[in-house]
């Protein structure tokens, strides 16, 4: 039986032309005339969009795709969700933009957000609005430095926290900094507990301890090198780094050490938050409370907005205008966010994400048993990854196979994206509302595409 909120277009996947189709090719050509060629997503998905609804996208040639992409976890409730759309339309008649001055939607959003924050932040925090995920992370490290009166921020290998301003130093891939005009000033990276590729040969059960012991050494020893530690910035599950789920003991150990030494713990929930992992915040899986939390992507329902939530005592000494931005707290985005959070609170969607996520992961693992080029399957909720390798013994990354498989999926009508240190990880990040039939059809395309490219 179809859910009242299932607005996915009927018949996906449906491919009726060569890809890209003639209308899409013409639109891409027109775009190329004016827009920078440094775009990346038009290289990944060669189509021009006509409309999108639920977990489906239709191009201008009538080809219909299953969306396992969700705008990089920006549309957790899918395209054009009725609850989100209704909230935006109602707000559109009231107010579209104002700077900081209270409105009904702003205060209601703040109240709703406070009611769902993790652990000790719930109803005991302050919120600072920002605009993008990078902006939120930038504000978070600025706040950590202000509170601690220390400059150095510890981040992790594989991290992605944005590519604007000083936060670009915390994003691990150096190529983002090559022309940014900023070096990784006062940022020190530790290895993330990436058990499949951990750089130190230790038993898997000791990996978290090795990382956290190194952090404590940096904090305690004035001759350790990076300088006084003013904050630790971490994704509870790494996103662009490869959908890497750390060992269960890592975040609790990290919390223990940072608390012991009064170092602000900053949790970046930009990609993991708003239900993506089966809980509203991924940190809830580990029973910890961050000192500062970064929120963006799906909180705006497709509109750019972000914020940080932090311990209320951090707010008392902040000067006016500590972090500015014209578009902070856009009313349309806050209306969407309020509707989304209330929907997560009152529906059974998070239980479904957990159950369906386990099912999808199981199907990935069953395919791994048949395909030796799948080195590892990992994930939580609807953050599920298959890491592709040339050989399971050497674990040599296989980005070529990853790209070929993604292209085959596209040609069959499934949009799936990659990530990982070597661009060799296929990641499932469909809308949380994707109906069962599109899960099944997507899995069929996923399996057929990988088998096509591994049997040659």
Break the fold down into its secondary structure elements and pairings:
Blueprint: H1 22-34, H2 41-44, E1 49-53, E2 56-59, E3 64-67, H3 70-73, H4 82-92, H5 104-116, E4 125-130, H6 133-148, E5 152-156, E6 187-190, H7 207-220, E7 229-234, H8 250-260, E8 265-268, E9 292-295, E10 306-311, H9 331-346, H10 349-370, E11 374-380, E12 383-391, E13 396-397, H11 399-412, E14 414-415, E15 417-419, E16 425-428, H12 436-454
Parallel strand pairs: 3-14, 5-6, 5-7, 7-8, 8-9
Antiparallel strand pairs: 1-2, 2-3, 4-10, 9-10, 11-12, 12-13, 12-16, 15-16
Helix pairs in contact: 4-9, 5-9, 7-8, 11-12
Describe this protein's structure.
- α5 packs parallel to α9 and α11 crosses α12.
- The chain contains twelve helices and 16 strands.
- The chain has helices at residues 22-34, 41-44, 70-73, 82-92, 104-116, 133-148, 207-220, 250-260, 331-346, 349-370, 399-412, 436-454; strands at 49-53, 56-59, 64-67, 125-130, 152-156, 187-190, 229-234, 265-268, 292-295, 306-311, 374-380, 383-391, 396-397, 414-415, 417-419, 425-428.
- It starts with 21 loop residues before the first helix and ends with a helix.
- The longest helix is centred in the C-terminal third of the chain and has 22 residues, at 349-370.
- It has a seven-stranded mixed β-sheet with strand order 4-10-9-8-7-5-6, sandwiched between helices. Strands 11, 12, 13, 15 and 16 form a five-stranded antiparallel β-sheet that branches. Strands 1-2-3-14 form a four-stranded mixed β-sheet.
- The protein is α/β, with parallel strands linked by helices.
- It has three domains: 1-67 and 407-423 and 447-456, no CATH class; 83-346, Type I PLP-dependent aspartate aminotransferase-like (Major domain) (Aspartate Aminotransferase, domain 2); 352-382, no CATH class.
- The chain is globular, with a radius of gyration of 22 Å.
């Amino acid at each position: 039986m179809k859910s009242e909120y299932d607005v996915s277009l009927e018949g996906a996947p449906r491919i009726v032309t060569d890809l890209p189709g003639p209308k899409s090719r013409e639109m891409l050509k027109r775009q190329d005339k004016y827009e920078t060629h440094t775009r990346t997503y038009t290289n990944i998905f060669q189509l021009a969009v006509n409309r999108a609804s639920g977990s489906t996208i239709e191009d201008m040639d009538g080809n219909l795709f299953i969306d396992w992409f969700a705008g990089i976890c920006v549309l957790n409730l899918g395209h054009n969700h009725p609850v989100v759309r209704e909230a935006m339309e109602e707000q559109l008649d009231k107010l579209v933009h104002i700077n900081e001055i209270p409105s009904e939607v702003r205060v209601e959003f703040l109240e709703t957000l406070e009611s769902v924050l993790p652990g000790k932040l719930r109803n005991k925090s302050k919120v600072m609005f920002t605009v993008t995920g990078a902006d939120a992370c930038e504000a978070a490290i600025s706040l950590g430095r202000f509170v601690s009166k220390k400059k150095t921020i510890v981040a992790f290998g594989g991290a992605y926290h944005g590519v604007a301003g000083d936060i670009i130093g915390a994003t691990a891939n150096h190529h983002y900094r090559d022309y940014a005009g900023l070096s990784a000033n006062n940022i020190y990276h530790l290895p993330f507990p990436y058990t499949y590729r951990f750089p130190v040969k230790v038993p898997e059960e000791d990996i978290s301890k090795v990382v956290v012991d190194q952090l404590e050494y940096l904090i305690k020893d004035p001759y350790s090198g990076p300088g006084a530690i003013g904050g630790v910035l971490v994704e509870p599950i790494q996103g662009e780094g490869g959908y890497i789920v750390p060992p269960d003991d890592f975040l609790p150990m990290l919390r223990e050490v940072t608390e012991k030494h009064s170092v602000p713990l900053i949790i970046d929930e930009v990609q993991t938050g708003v239900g993506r992992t089966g809980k509203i915040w991924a940190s809830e899986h580990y029973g910890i409370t961050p000192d500062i939390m970064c929120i963006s992507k799906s909180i705006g329902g497709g509109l750019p907005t972000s914020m940080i939530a932090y311990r209320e005592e951090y707010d008392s000494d902040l000067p006016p205008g500590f972090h500015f931005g014209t578009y902070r707290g856009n009313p349309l985005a806050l209306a969407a966010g309020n509707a989304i959070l209330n929907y997560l609170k009152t529906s059974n969607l998070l239980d479904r994400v957990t159950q369906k996520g386990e099912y999808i992961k199981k199907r990935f693992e069953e395919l791994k048993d048949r395909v030796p080029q799948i080195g590892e399957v990992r994930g939580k909720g609807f953050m599920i990854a298959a890491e592709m390798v040339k050989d399971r013994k050497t674990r040599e990354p296989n980005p070529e196979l990853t790209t070929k498989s993604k292209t085959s999926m596209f040609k069959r009508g499934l949009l799936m994206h990659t990530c990982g240190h070597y661009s060799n990880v296929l990641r499932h990040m469909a809308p949380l509302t994707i109906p069962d039939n599109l899960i099944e059809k997507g899995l069929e395309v996923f399996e057929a595409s990988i088998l096509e490219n591994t049997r040659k």
